[in-house]
Amino acid sequence: MIGIDRYIDAEWMRLASAVVRGEVARDVIQERLEIDVPSPTVRSKTNGILNRMWFPQDRDRFGVVDGCAAEAGKHSASEPAMFLAVGIMAYPYIRQVAEHLGRLIRIQGSCKPGEVHRRMFELHGKRTTIDQATSYAFKTLGSWGIITREEDRFRSLANPLGQASQFLLNRAANISRSSVTAMTDNDPLKVFFR
Prior knowledge:
By secondary structure, the protein is mostly helical. The chain has helices spanning 10-20, 27-36, 40-54, 59-74, 79-90, 92-108, 113-124, 128-143, 163-177; strands at residues 147-150, 153-156. The protein starts with 9 loop residues before the first helix and ends in a 17-residue tail after the last helix.
């Protein structure tokens, strides 16, 4: 399942995290989306993606989301890791894109979008939906401060990763991967952090 078929802006993630912390009402997200997203159909899909990320139904995911919201509220520098954690837990496709980016950036120092597209096509087949979802993931990861695009290449922004953020990112990665193994220093998701 791809599921992520829209770009998700960091500002919307900040609002959703504030809702989880109880700082703002949930309808603030909808009000902001009405300003930023003119199409009712796209707005509805975007709202659905944010709901899946920030308001999960199962207890394990909600515990991680609650921790991510709290950590993002304490330190804005932890937002990239916390947004990534929430994103990969709800949408393994984001994790797959981020892992391919991480592997290629670790080996080459940067990578071209086509290199990641090619790997996603190998996993999911060469379809327009895969091409679009991968492009949305790039734009989303850029907005969250995970990667930057310089000319025709992506680079890591090497965000700080505190102990609490690392713990939460590890839990989210385990849920996304259906694993119990802790992330190692060589994990492709860690390329984006220092």
